[in-house]
Amino acid sequence: MKDIERVAVVGLGYVGLTLAVAMAQRGIEVVGVERRPEVVDLTNAGKPHFSEQGLDEILDQVVKRGSLKAFTSFSDVAPCDAYVITVGTPLGADGNPRLDMVESATREVVSHMADGALIVLRSTVKLGTTREVVARVLEESGRSGFVAMCPERTLEGDALREIANLPQIVGGLTDAATDRAASLFGKLTNSVVRVASPETAEMIKLIDNTYRDVRFAFANEVARACDAVGVNANDVIGFGKLGYPRTNVALPGLVGGPCLEKDPHILRHSLAQHGVDMEVTGAARKVNERQPHETVAQAFAIARARNANAPLTIALAGLAFKGVPETDDLRGSMALHVIDAIRAQGHEGAIRVYDPVVQEQQIGELGLGLEVHGDLEGAAEGAHILFIANNHPSYRKVTLDRLAGKLGTNGFIYDYWNHFGHEMGVQPGRYVTVGNLVAGEKAA
């Protein structure tokens, strides 16, 4: 069987571009097909359209070497040995996973490919999509090829290293398809895991992310319980597992991002079609989705008790969905839900925001009327509440004493990530974390 030398990556979003660069870096000729002309132009200029550690330099190298070139369509692209589909799979308005972009991309691939090419689905999809959409479109076309599923599982901010080190899951429709896909992804890493079917590969991705969502939801349940009885959830969780190997409860906090916000819903929808109600999965997602409104209501109750007649000045640090590894990705950002919850409290004034990675232009494009500050202390100046909504390590460069000192009279920090837990006694009443309302006067 002919070796795979030329690959088309369909969709140059976060998953597609990092994969395309990793392949090109290893000597594969890669073409990227992306409908957004601005992304194509940036890619061909060697500039990524998002923040990712190490990507700038390597993208520039592979573009200059001619190993990667981007196009807006297949019209000027010669047939390839393999096609990797990495388009988005958002939830629709009805809350169910959309597959129209996967089907559209598959039709474009099938109309372009020669017989015998490999088609790999890498997008996160509901169970059965590889067989029922990708393979069906190929079969209806009358062409022949190999179809496999190889789910993406990289961590934003660390994608290039993880592509080379994490096991790649490969499940083909046939043994030959699995072999072909394993040969391709074996060029990226020495650890390729062959599984029995595309459905197995699809399920692995959904289960991995749903497990994390459930684990974090339990931590948030612990926080609610501790708030109710007036004890510190961080103490209960942290001290409870010291030297005790049978317990490893996560710390509470915001749970979102482009994967955890939607993948449990995709899993539930998939299984509902088989008559199975994923009850724990649904309950966990409910806990995590309602947390911004619950916690903001608690914080406002404390602030209003301290500043009964004063209009509140609100600041928020961390708009990206996470801070470690750092990213500028706003997809699935729970900070945006925190902002919605602040507005729902009747706050009509400006909300000050600071993020060490997300650019002011990106924030402006949200259209939320946010007041952008260039540093954390400036955003905190005179605030009644400073919400810390992601875990960027730069926040720890300021001491709790100094940061709390910037707040207005009776102001406090509501920290979803427990950055200053080790300094709890420094500013009594000025520092609150999830599951530790008692530190800021438990709301009545």
Task: Please tell me about this protein's structure.
This protein has 444 residues and is an alpha/beta fold. The protein has 2 domains: 6-196, NAD(P)-binding Rossmann-like Domain (Rossmann fold), CATH 3.40.50; 209-440, NAD(P)-binding Rossmann-like Domain (Rossmann fold). It contains 16 helices and 14 strands. The protein has helices at 14-25, 37-44, 55-65, 100-112, 129-141, 159-165, 175-185, 198-229, 233-240, 257-260, 263-272, 279-306, 334-344, 360-365, 376-380, 400-406, and strands at residues 6-10, 29-33, 68-71, 82-85, 117-121, 145-149, 168-172, 192-194, 314-317, 351-354, 370-372, 385-388, 412-415, 431-433. The chain has an 8-stranded mixed beta sheet with strand order 3-2-1-4-5-6-7-8, sandwiched between helices. Strands 11-10-9-12-13-14 form a 6-stranded parallel beta sheet.
Q: Which helices and strands occur, and which strands form pairs?
A:
Blueprint (H helix, E strand, L loop, with lengths): L5 E5 L3 H12 L3 E5 L3 H8 L10 H11 L2 E4 L10 E4 L14 H13 L4 E5 L7 H13 L3 E5 L9 H7 L2 E5 L2 H11 L6 E3 L3 H32 L3 H8 L16 H4 L2 H10 L6 H28 L7 E4 L16 H11 L6 E4 L5 H6 L4 E3 L3 H5 L4 E4 L11 H7 L5 E4 L15 E3 L11
Parallel strand pairs: 1-2, 1-4, 2-3, 4-5, 5-6, 7-8, 9-10, 9-12, 10-11, 12-13, 13-14
Antiparallel strand pairs: 6-7
Helix pairs in contact: 1-3, 1-6, 4-5, 8-9, 8-11, 8-12, 12-13
GO molecular function: NAD binding; oxidoreductase activity, acting on the CH-CH group of donors, NAD or NADP as acceptor; UDP-N-acetyl-D-mannosamine dehydrogenase activity
Keywords: NAD, Oxidoreductase
Organism: Sphingomonas kyeonggiensis
